[in-house]
Request: fold
Amino acid sequence: MSFSVAIVGRPNVGKSTLFNRLVGKKLALIDDRPGVTRDLREGFATLHGLQFVVFDTAGLEDGDKSSLQARMSDLTRLAIDNTDVTLFLLDARSSVTAADERLAEFLRKRAKHVVVAANKSETSAADVGIIDAFSLGLGEPIRLSAEHGIGFSELHESLRGLAEELDAVGTSRGESTYEFASNFNANIDASNTSHTEEKAIQVAVVGRPNAGKSTLINRIFGQDRLLTGPESGITRDAIALRVNWAGTDGTTIAIKIFDTAGMRRKPKVQEKLEQISVSDGLRAVMFAEVVILLLDANNPLEQQDLRLADLAEREGRAAVIAVNKWDLQRDRQQQLSQIKEKFERLLPQWQGAAVVPVSAKTGEGLENLQKAVVQCHQVWNQRVATNILNSWLSEMVAHHPPPAPNGNRIKLRYITQIKSRPPTFIIMCSHPRQLPASYRRYLKNGLRDDFSLYGTPIRIALRDQGDKNPFKGRKSNRQRG
Reply:
């Protein structure tokens, strides 16, 4: 039994609080001010054993067709049209408002099934509001408190009855609903960090405000699922969408792509809501596998772009640099060369990372971006055999021996890769603390160039081996036989 539910209601009735309660995680941003939610946030809910896909919506507000409020309302209508059940949430502490009545009228015309819930009803002060809710003509309201967990047994009974009805007539999760609710469990979760047939590559798109992140993801997804517009800072929380990309070998690669809020320099982030939005975006980077740093071709590589690239490196994430609004550029080849040169000069740790020009508006370059993401994810997971590494280390030392500070000769004896994601190596050596940082960079650059480890951070740790032979005391395979 599988179905989908959209939570709708006027601003500040507790939709996001209810969403977080149903999915069991604090995924949606919550604040006292109305209108915090803008995009559709999707999650996988479990209520007393009943499982379903749930959407948090922005609500329906009146406004000019080109206004931000109108575009937010369009996404809410999209959710109502493409889900099985609409959960109409009211504020039980106040009487039914004109906005509630307009939304009720809309739901009578468009929604497939409606469940009315009067939220914030944990006290007797809500009694009048609950009685008033009967006037909407949408059935008996459920007395609910999303914050205190009251009324969820009654909500379960209502949803279970509708789910059984949908299942009986075979209308639950039709094709359009299935395509719309494409991301079951849209959570930023550290446990989903490996790519198998069931798990998707986690990709976070980051950048400064108004770089075109939401527009790019809409283009990749093939549907206007994320709110876009000329206003800066539209996106507030990290929204995940799941898409399938065609691999080079004919297979299908699942991608879970996160849209994040535009990140300004820290001194400019003053409001609490923006601080929470930026924190949510940083969390998406921490749990991503690949980070797409989206630059604005009209003004690329500002200080904040470099800080975001440095953050991805420090967190150990693979990275692809996408240069957006390429359709507006004239001298493309020269500009691309300048961007690559400046990027590698200012961030040498990302030397060789893919720089892909794209246009979120026209779709230009998206195929190249897709290939770059998949390739750098493969590099991020790459392992190099120990015997090959030790042959490489011998050649590196022979070509450029390590220095002998204070007359202490540093011997690099043995290297092995201890993990991937990102590629991490340990070198057994004498006097590891005296090995200069410049020589470490020499080794790291050699690993990157000789094994094509581009687009991923590289970690090298030194372990004091002294004059010991790492193979001493070990029996060879012949001796074991």
In short: The CA atoms of residues 192 and 199 lie 7 Å apart. The chain has a mean pLDDT of 81.
